[in-house]
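User: Hey, quick favor. My workstation is busy. Could you predict this chain's structure for me?
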Amino acid sequence: MLCTPDEPSLRWLCAEATAAGLTCVPFHEPDLGGALTAAALEPAAHRLVSHLPLALSSRGEVNNNDHVHG
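Assistant: No problem, here it is.
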């Protein structure tokens, strides 16, 4: 599982994957007003996500405190 910095970045990632002809399955959270909170991408999308840090990593690349929901 990887982490994007924010929802617009995740939307961009989904758009780029779709534009490249890759499968992207977005997940919207009803309890958060339908916000895009995750996406599943096919393995061929590895080049689009290779720069993203691991989610919930203790390395500190991304401040995950803003993205964790109870």
